[in-house]
Design a protein that fits this description.
By secondary structure, the chain is an alpha/beta fold. The protein contains 24 helices and 20 strands. The chain folds into three domains: about 230 residues, P-loop containing nucleotide triphosphate hydrolases (Rossmann fold, 3-Layer(aba) Sandwich); about 60 residues, no CATH class; about 220 residues, P-loop containing nucleotide triphosphate hydrolases (Rossmann fold, 3-Layer(aba) Sandwich), CATH 3.40.50. Helices cover about 35% and strands about 25% of the residues.
């Protein structure tokens, strides 16, 4: 008989001040040693489910709660979250909110100190987990000095050090490079294999298929529960629920095959067995390369935060007017630091950065902010005003725009991102996809020539990702130069014209998207993995960037 470590019975919850139920009469369980994936569109109730399961709701997030949550067959009602910390470990979607210590080592020790773990065991766990997660060389670093992906790994490691029987993770891979994402999934697999239980909330279906079981949520309720090959089989059903279907599932659907292979190797075996042959090179749909003048020029730039830890090591590159560029690289490779030199946020230790041939330090960060708009990795770090109108108007006022012209500029920016009519809304009650668009509108209102976005699709469901990227495509067609940093190689494959790959603060590859993604050795060096359709295409000697291109080659 299977023992449920966690069970929710008829659980409903509405956040304080809201009549809408975030989750509605949910029955959910995780058995001991089970790895359960939790999926659905933004706002489906996934995070609320995790919060209820861990006791965080309704203790910290107040509201109307009903139903019962049991851990090890015992109700958690009345238990403080701290009492459950040794049993249930939670990694939040906002992982930075979990970090507050002065260095990585103290961050890893904090939870164990509060649980009075033996000091010898504490040191053993810290060393083991730090090695496992890839933090061993960062132990004395201040958490806020780490890259986004390194912070995310630290948040996970701090919870793993508690050795919880149940690990609940809310989008724990959003800021990780592809190899680090696979490493995390290996860790979760190993945890489940050793008898621990895992609940994973993610939009990443390529990795979600590794779970023992998938629970799909919509409008606060569980609408499907089963194996990945059942739940994610129909690509249209996936899109309807805010998910991209796994690429091999989509390919086989287009080819009229019933199989749903879980890996590229398995897909090739089935195609070969069924007699499929790549008959022709697919029609290419590459975006036309720009022929504009150099806009941003970087010459032999070096930078470090501390002299013993160089971040940029002789970076040189050129971005043309009208380009759509993607920067790829593993966590800590220097991507975010590099783009901060573009608008004089950071000054190189040596080397120069030019905008239209003028050194950016001579222009200065204030004026450069009007020429190069920068949307942060976490849009919430940009938002602070009482309503949407004031949020967008802030930058215009800051740059001296006459007050009578501001309403027209705000309206134009909001219309461009599809948020017209939201002027009176509090930004912090908007879903993340809309907050991301609002951050773009704040920058766009100042009419910059270049838009730089650091991880523009992080935490967004499939439909929100498409909306965001199509917005950038439209802005690019209107003359804006677009530069994005992303760990989603699939997004790069779908939208970028050119790719620069960074590794250890150096540019190790640059070229068109098709050229770069066809170089598996280069990608591997930078902890990157091409999308499944690209890898399968390479096995047949094809250079493809999408599932549709690959399916065309087999027809």
């Amino acid at each position: 008989m299977t023992t449920n470590l966690l069970s929710l019975k008829n659980v409903s919850f509405a956040y304080g001040g809201s009549e809408r139920l975030a989750i509605n009469n949910v029955n959910f369980s995780i058995a001991q040693g089970e790895f359960v994936g939790i999926a659905g569109a933004s706002g489906a109730g996934k995070s609320t489910l995790i919060r209820c399961a861990s006791g965080i709701t309704p203790q910290f997030f107040k509201g109307r709660f009903s139903g019962q949550v049991r851990v090890n067959a015992r109700p958690i009602t009345g238990k403080r979250v701290a009492e459950l910390a040794g049993i249930i470990g939670t990694v939040f979607q906002d992982f930075e909110a979990q970090l507050f210590s002065t260095n990585v080592r103290r961050e890893l020790a904090f939870g164990m100190e509060n649980l009075c773990v033996n000091r010898k065991i504490m040191h053993q766990r810290i060393n083991k987990i730090a090695q496992l997660i890839g933090l061993s060389g960062l132990m004395e670093r201040e958490p806020q000095s780490l890259s986004g992906g390194q912070k995310q790994r630290l948040a996970l490691a701090s919870v793993l050090c508690l050795n919880p029987a149940l690990l609940l993770c809310d989008e724990p891979t959003t800021d990780l490079d592809p190899v680090a994402k696979n490493m995390l999934l290996d860790i979760l697999d190993d945890l489940a294999g050793s008898g621990n239980s895992v609940g994973l909330v993610t939009h990443d279906t390529e990795r979600l298929i590794r779970a023992d079981r998938i629970v799909l949520m919509r409008d606060g309720s569980i609408v499907a529960n089963g194996k990945a090959t059942e739940i994610l089989s129909d690509p249209q059903f996936c899109i309807d629920n805010g998910l991209f279907a796994p690429q091999m599932f989509s390919l086989f659907s287009l080819l009229g095959l019933k199989d749903r292979p879980l890996s590229v190797d398995e897909a090739k075996e089935v195609l070969d067995r069924e007699g499929f042959v790549a008959k022709a090179s697919p029609s290419r749909t590459d975006i036309t390369m720009p022929s504009g003048d150099p806009l941003i020029t970087v010459e032999d730039v070096h930078f470090y935060y501390t002299p013993d830890s160089p971040v940029l090591n002789g970076v040189s590159l050129e971005i043309e007017q009208g380009d759509f560029v993607c920067l790829l690289g593993q966590n800590g490779s220097g991507k975010t630091t590099l783009i901060k030199t573009f608008n004089a946020f950071l000054h190189p230790v040596s080397g120069r950065v030019f905008f239209k041939g003028i050194p950016v330090e001579k222009i200065g960060p204030s004026k450069m902010g009007q020429k190069i708009g920068f949307v942060f990795q976490n849009p919430d770090q940009m938002l602070f005003a009482a309503n949407v109108f004031e949020e967008v108007a802030f930058g215009l006022r800051n740059y001296g725009m006459p007050e009578k012209e501001i309403p027209q500029k705000v309206a134009a920016a909001l219309k461009a991102v599809g948020l017209n009519g939201t002027e009176d809304i509090d930004p912090f009650i908007m879903v993340k996809g809309d907050r991301q668009k609002l951050a773009v509108a704040c920058v766009l209102a100042c009419e910059p020539e270049v838009l730089i976005l650091d991880e523009p699709t992080t935490g967004l469901d499939a439909n929100e990702q498409v909306d965001m990227m199509e917005l950038l495509v439209n802005l690019n067609s209107l003359g804006h130069t677009i530069v994005i940093i992303t760990h989603s190689v699939q997004i790069a494959a779908s939208y970028a014209r050119r790719i620069f790959i960074l590794d250890s603060g150096k540019i190790i590859g640059e070229g068109t998207t098709r050229e770069i993604l066809g170089k598996s050795d280069l990608l591997s060096r930078a902890n990157l993995i091409a999308p499944p359709c690209v890898r399968l295409g390479c096995m047949y000697g094809l250079s493809v960037l999408s599932v549709s291109e690959l399916a065309e080659a087999f027809k």
